[in-house]
Amino acid sequence: MHESVNDSLVGTVVDDRYRVLSRIARGGMSTVYLATDLRLDRDVALKVLYPHLAADPGFLDRFEREAKSAARLSHPHVVGVLDQGFSDNLAYLVMEYVPGKTLRELLEARTRLTPRLALALLDAVVDGLAEAHDAGMIHRDVKPENVLLADNGSIKIADFGLARAVSTSTSTGTLVGTVAYLAPELVTGTGADERSDVYSAGIMLYEMLTGRQPFTGTAPIQVAFQHVHSTVPAPSGACPGLASDLDELVRWCTDPNPDNRPVDGKALLGELRHIRTSLTDEQLDFHCGGPSEDLSPSPSGATEVLSAAAATTAALARPPAGATEVISTAGAAGAGAAGAAGAAGAAGAGAYPTEVIRRSENATSVFPAGGSGTGRNRFGPADPDGYSGGGDGGTSDRDDSGGGRPEPGSRSERRQARREAKARERQSSREAHRPEMSLRRGRPRRRGALLLVLAVLLIAAAVFTGWFFGRGPGAVVAVPDVANVSREAAGALLRGEGLQYSTNEIHDEIVAAGLAVGTDPDAPAEIRRFQPVTLLISKGPELFDVPNVVQRTVEAASENITDAGLSVGAVTEEYSETVDAGKVISQFPAPDTQLRRDTSVNIVVSLGPAPVEVPSLLGKSEDEAIQLLEEAGLTAEILPGQVNSRDVPAGSVAGQTPESGLVERGTAVTLTISKGPVMVEVPGVVRQSPDEARAQLEGLGFQVQINELLGGLLGIVQSQDPAGGSMAPEGSVITLRVV
User: Fold this and answer.
1) What Å distances lie between residue 109 and 104, 291, 306, 570, 671, CA to CA?
2) What is the pLDDT at residue 702?
3) Which of 290, 291, 591, 594 fits a disulfide with 543 by CB distance 3.0 to 4.6 angstroms?
4) Closest to 149 (Cα-Cα) out of 140, 160, 157
């Protein structure tokens, strides 16, 4: 349906600024072109909406709002929105042009990915989602087709906010987005939030790890049904051997209950990076049986995509800007030289073990420092999918003196070499802690005093610890149930258990304002007294202002009411002399009234003016007929030609259309005006017999009345009225006197 419209744009200039070079793709709501920004001389991606969407003013308004929101996002993993406009009946969106592949193309080429590459790709996607969630935006359509793998190695997610613009332009109940990745709450229509994007990301991780989607069916409704009524299976069920941490991560993200998922992208990102650092190299580089184990170059340019993703993985492995590295040496006094050697990578006798503590914004990780390259890099190697990149992604093989040696050729030999190197490193660390000789002789008396002091300190510490964790701030207590009690009473209950608390006011549909809703954590959770507790106080139900929908169409009024957090109630119809048909006459409750969420708002819709009865105007004078029509709310239309009528005098109404019935107010009634009867010359019939005179006069349309004098013995017409030769109306009476 859109083919001719799409092809006609190639070679044209949109809005006197964007020259369309070629078509890139076509989707469910728009066509994407490669275009040149003539003003800034750069390539851009031009998304042109289909005509049926561009013709909807309501949709264009929502589309503009969503585009403005998306344009405020500035993040290396989010496709930037550069411009938006409407020109020559074309609604368009200008976005950053990202040459490269999509994640869908990568999955089609590789079938499935190693956990290392899958987690690296998901890290970038969730990082972009976290930025959007912080800005109050939800994607609603996270899927491999919207994840772009640029040729320069960057990973970006596209189409923020457009799913919402489309969904609000369709009828209620329409699913927008690829059904294979839709969260259950989007299927059931209960509303979307940041956790819906987390669900889609979990489905995408499952597909990257297993090469398949968790739910399939012959029809989209079957897949949607499974999202609502089934639990996403563990990836290890489809790919035995995957780490259990990956199963837990997928199930956490795809829990059918949104309350059991990460609250937003930032929460998921922290856990995702923690898992990446906790898995072993063997778990990260695990290959499930199937096409992905073939490490030969992939078809259709997938090798270039993998290289780009590998570069991104290496970039993610680097510590963030501003990260602090603290090197602490656990050694005795006077062993500074050995400690320095340990920090530099020496593993000889006398070298004390060191620890490198890397602190970043999301987590703190501790790595054993056995020399340069001897520890496993938990942030991921430079080679994401089993290719040798020349980096130190896994554990380097070193001999006892710290020198490197080439790894054996086979994979099993390399794993054996790594295990041997780790064993040598652990043995070296143990020997470094064991002193070979005493530096000086002890003094028994001083040593006895020190031992006594140490014993006293240990006893005091034990007593303090027992008090602290038994009856002091560290004691375990059950959070009391404070629901439906006053603020003061709830505080007294918490203080009675020795708990310190803060107060937070929230809306609640059940608990009255000023009373306690509960606590966080909920009662009767067991916590230690020093742990914080939040007392939740009700502000009463959340109230929403009723919008003014009078004079709006039914569709616009329904949308305004729904957007205000309310629902449309009874819709009745009435005639109205002042409000056009199809628009709202009145509403209940009145505008600006405050109601609870989903409260019904009833509206009365106009049927237009009430119909009126057409009056009978036959025989009325022209002026009288016009006045009667105006009083009835109708208009008069006088035909230009008049007609003769025996019964209606000249100047009066001889006919009307319509003659009667109900019509809309303002309808025109056509009037035909009489010019009286036809005038006929009266023939002279004096001296004729009565029968001859009657026949002649009636043949001309006259009526004949005979008055006999003296019984009409002679049978001759003596006189006539009107006289012969005069003019008389057709059908008038001619009186004959017969003798």
Assistant:
1) 9, 9, 10, 55, 81
2) 86
3) 594
4) 157
351: which residues sit within 8 A by CB, 6+ positions away? 338, 339, 341, 342, 428, 432
Calculate the dihedral angle through the C-alpha atoms of 554, 557, 563, 569, rounding to the nearest 10 degrees: -70
Distance CA 127, CA 32 (A): 25
Q: What are 34's strand-pairing partners?
A: 22, 45
User: Alpha-carbon distance 252 to 235, whole Å?
Assistant: 12
Rounded Cα gap, residues 92 and 89, in angstroms: 10
Would you state the pLDDT for residue 247? 95
Q: Check residue 516 and give its pLDDT.
A: 93
Per-residue confidence (pLDDT) for residue 359, from 0 to 100: 32
Question: Which residue out of 123, 127, 141, 508 is catalytically annotated?
Answer: 141
pLDDT (0 to 100) of residue 383: 35
Q: Do domains 100-314 and 476-538 have the same CATH topology?
A: no
Q: In this structure, are residues 15 and 83 in contact, taking their beta carbons and an 8 Å threshold?
A: no
Beta bridge partners of 605: 573, 584
d(CA 631, CA 619): 18
- For 612-673, CATH number? 3.30.10.20
User: pTM of the prediction?
Assistant: 0.44
* Helix intervals (H) in 347-442: 411-433
- DSSP string computed for 570-596: EEEEE--SSS-TTBEEEEESPTT-EEE
* Fold topology of 100-314: Transferase(Phosphotransferase); domain 1 (1.10.510)
CB atoms within 10 A of CB 490: 25
Domain ranges of the chain: 3-96, 100-314, 476-538, 543-606, 612-673, 679-738
CATH 2.60.120.10 fits 543-606, yes or no: no
Q: Give the per-residue pLDDT at 538.
A: 92
| CA separation for the pair 619, 179 (Å, rounded) | 73
Tell me if the domain spanning 679-738 has CATH number 2.60.40.2470: no
Supply the DSSP symbol for 179.
G
Q: Which CATH architecture has domain 476-538?
A: 2-Layer Sandwich (3.30)
The closest of 118, 203, 5 to 380, measured between CA atoms, is 118
Is 141 noted as a catalytic residue in this protein? Answer: yes
Helix 194-210 and helix 265-278, axial crossing angle in degrees, nearest 10: 30
What pLDDT was estimated at residue 699? 87
| Cβ 200 vs Cβ 142: under 8 Å | yes
Question: Which stretches in the chain have pLDDT values below 70?
Answer: 1-7, 161-177, 289-445
- Compute the distance between CA of residue 330 and CA of residue 357 in angstroms, rounded to an integer: 13
For residues 166 and 66, is the Cβ–Cβ distance under 8 A?
Answer: no
- Strand locations in 607-721 (E): 612-613, 635-638, 653-657, 662-663, 668-673, 679-681, 703-708, 717-721
